[in-house]
Design brief:
binds adenosine-5'-diphosphate; single chain; Rossmann fold; 710 residues; Arc Repressor Mutant, subunit A; 5 domains; alpha/beta; binds zinc ion
Length: 710
């Protein structure tokens, strides 16, 4: 029975969504729902939560009701489903009575599979939805953003509490609750407040391994930002600022430099806000500069970067905001500008709150945010540990990891700077310290400071150098900012010890705000541009977001494999039957013309390449059968009393001879990520690639991804 369900679910995934395999827990979650069990899903943003109820919706009898607080998102979600040939609708107050009546009739005729509603819709009005649901077959209820039911969450919505009533009215209908919030207290509340029956829990790792984290000091923030944006010329991104004023100023500065930028904050008229948000979602404008008011209603999968011009108030907020980058799984970046000044500003703002207990909690969280920003620990490790998840660190994909190995001996200038801080009684900011160090004649310098032995010892080096060094010493734990009215510097214990012991101080001095690993090979950039502009034209015509036509992943695959006929086109990830029928010809024409003009050879996608060999020893075939029956590698190794690596070798061999699809081993996105990195590295060895990814991929995964490529 289970096997049949699984093949059906996979067929649905391929046929409607164009994806050849499930990711992470998706398949297990779907089985749980199809077995009519209440199910709770904790998955990070971009993890693929929607598929978890959309596939069962297609497979189950009756209507799937999706409860979501974000009315603004419903239309986009419904558009995306319709584009895949799945009948879906939403009900909200913006619709006319006749429109709503039409939808109800369609549901009664079973012509709609998924209905999106806000929770208040269930009970309010003269004819509450609750009563209507009793007249039809309800197959499944999906509660999206389920953390809204908890008062401990950051987004409590009282209407969510009434979903429990719905649960009681329909005791036989399975419920699935989904959230990207990791907080433990909130988790416990979800099952309880929604009244779920002994739910099955599915908790994924919250690691967003496609996001590169970077933190840098605020010194020359505009210059650094421009350098960063230069690497992202074609990309969509969000730039967060603390205040409306900062938003306005930053947006103006970027516009003045000719960038495609619009502002967003609560002070703008509602129509302008909505318009700007829509232009961003529709790829008509590349960058939004915003306060944190922006983002809740955004489901845009191809946000390539998120910048924080100011430090967020807590790590929860930081993680949520940076999490808006790279929902589609493609490499994306998060950049944070740190300054102690911001820390003090936020701290002061918090002090003004009335509830003293609350102030303490907030300030504690702010301190953690501050120490994250100044820390020298792998950013990913720090973040995941904060959320109670273990990560070995050295992710190889954050600024701290990048800087390892780029150390220089900075002992002498560091001693000069640290001594100056000490001689000035640890009561001045970096600016003043540098003036003294460089022997400035400024009237700001107190006479007694001109008598100090350190006065002028650093005049051979420019101010910029000392500023950078100061920032690095701070980041690496030698200097700490203190002070309450204005920031002052003091030496840490570690700095005193280094000074006394005359030990070497090694620091990574050069900083690049992009690892320079932008892909230029792998896909045809010119074709990708053409496909993107075709996509945006079609989207304008249909008045839907471009991503509802094809995601960036799909376009990159097209520009990589160059499919020139329908069969090849159907092997592209994200191309389901309806989309192939609706858009196939148009996209194929562009690809065919490009291939012809540049005399290119289409490449066969591995998943479609099936060499007809009968190779494979008996032992390899046994491994293969066990693997395809759903067993994990370690389970097969145990069962067969063989080494883990032997089992892996068997599977690689099976991929090589075409008996096993690489898709069954790795997700599409991981496959693409590995192959792109491999091509970029330009060497045929696996070791540098392994080092590049750290623990993100095993040797087995790398080998599997590169079968036929090396
Ligand atoms: P979440 O709601 O968890 O933030 P989404 O449901 O929006 O995530 O999915 C994120 C992206 O991943 C979407 O573009 C979606 O189409 C894609 N996706 C989901 N499942 C798969 C899969 N099995 N294979 C390939 N892409 C997938
Ligand atoms: Zn790291």
């Amino acid at each position: 029975m289970e096997a049949i369900i699984q093949t059906n679910a996979r067929d649905v995934l391929q046929q409607y969504f164009g994806y050849p395999s499930f990711r992470g827990n998706q398949e297990a979650i779907i089985s749980s729902i199809l077995a009519k069990k209440d199910t709770i899903v904790l998955m990070p943003t971009g993890g693929g939560k929607s598929i978890c109820y959309q596939v069962p919706a297609i497979l189950s009898e009756g209507l799937t009701l999706v409860i979501s607080p974000l009315i603004s998102l419903m239309k986009d979600q419904v558009d995306a489903l319709n584009a895949n040939g799945i009948s879906a609708a939403f009900l909200n107050s913006s619709q006319s009575i006749s429109e709503q009546r039409h939808i109800s009739e369609q549901i009664k005729k079973s012509a709609i599979k998924l209905l999106y509603v806000a929770p208040e819709r269930l009970f309010n009005g003269s004819y509450p939805l609750m009563d209507f649901l009793k007249e039809i077959t309800l197959g499944l209820v999906a509660v999206d953003e389920a953390h809204c039911v908890s008062q401990w969450g950051h987004d409590f919505r009282p209407e969510y509490l009434r979903i429990g009533e719905l649960r009681r009215q329909f005791p036989k209908v399975p419920f699935i609750a989904l959230t990207a919030t990791a907080d433990k207290r909130t988790r416990a509340d979800i099952a309880d407040k929604l009244g779920l029956h002994t739910p099955q829990w599915f908790i994924s790792s919250f690691d967003r391994n496609n996001i590169t984290y970077r933190v840098t000091t605020k010194q020359d923030a505009m210059g650094k930002l421009m350098e960063f944006l230069d690497f992202h010329q074609k990309d969509s991104g969000i730039i967060y600022c603390l205040s409306r004023k900062n938003v306005e100023e930053t947006a103006e500065q970027l516009q003045a430099r000719g960038l495609s930028v619009l502002p967003y904050h609560a002070g703008l008229a509602r129509e302008i806000r909505e318009k700007n948000q829509e232009l961003f979602i529709k790829d008509e404008v590349k960058i939004i500069v915003a306060t944190i008011a922006f983002g809740m209603g955004i489901d845009k999968p191809n946000v390539r970067f998120v910048v924080h011009m100011n430090m967020p108030q807590n790590i929860e907020g930081y993680y949520q905001e940076t999490g808006r980058a790279g929902r589609d799984g493609l490499p994306s970046e998060a950049l944070l500008f740190y300054s102690y000044q911001d820390f003090m500003t936020l701290n002061r703002m918090m002090e003004q709150a009335e509830n003293k207990e609350f102030v303490e909690v907030m300030q504690e969280k702010l301190l953690r945010m501050n120490s994250f920003s100044q820390s020298n620990i792998c950013r990913r490790k720090y973040l995941l540990n904060y959320f109670g998840e273990n990560h070995p660190g050295e992710c190889g994909n954050c600024d701290v990891c990048f800087q390892k190995g780029k150390q220089q001996d900075m002992t002498i200038p560091s001693q000069m700077l640290l001594s100056t801080v000490a001689r000035l009684g640890e009561s001045y900011g970096l600016g003043y310290v540098i003036l003294v160090l460089r022997g400035s004649k400024s009237s700001k310098i107190q006479a007694s400071h001109q008598e100090l032995s350190v006065y002028g010892i650093g005049k051979d080096r420019p101010e910029e150098f000392w500023k950078t060094l100061g920032g690095k010493l701070q980041q690496h734990g030698y200097l700490a900012e203190a002070g309450t009215i204005y920031p002052t510097f003091k030496l840490t214990q570690m700095a005193w010890e280094k000074l006394k012991g005359k030990e070497k101080i090694l620091l990574p001095m050069e900083e690049s705000l992009s690892s320079g690993k932008r892909s230029t090979v792998g896909h045809e950039e010119g074709l990708l541009d053409e496909l993107k502009s075709l996509r945006i034209q079609l989207a304008r015509k249909a008045n839907i977001p471009p991503y509802a036509i094809f995601g960036d992943n799909s376009l990159i695959e097209m520009a990589t494999y160059l499919p020139i006929d329908t069969d090849a086109f159907m092997t592209i990830s994200g191309v389901g039957q309806i989309k192939a029928a609706n858009y196939g010809t148009t996209f194929l024409k562009v690809i065919q013309a490009f291939v012809k003009k540049h005399q290119l050879q289409p490449k066969r996608k591995l998943s479609s390449a099936k060499p007809k060999t009968t190779a494979g020893s008996g032992s390899e075939i046994i491994t293969l059968k066990l693997f395809q029956s759903g067993k994990k590698i370690y389970q097969i190794a145990q069962e067969r009393e063989l080494n883990h690596s032997t089992i892996e070798d068997h599977l690689i061999r099976m991929i090589e001879v075409g008996k096993l699809e690489v898709d069954e081993v790795l997700s599409k996105d991981d496959l693409l990520t590995i192959r792109l990195a491999y091509r970029r590295q330009g060497s045929h060895y696996l070791k540098p690639l392994k080092e590049h990814f750290g623990d993100r991929f095993s040797y087995f995964q790398l080998k599997a991804a590169l079968v036929g490529e090396r």
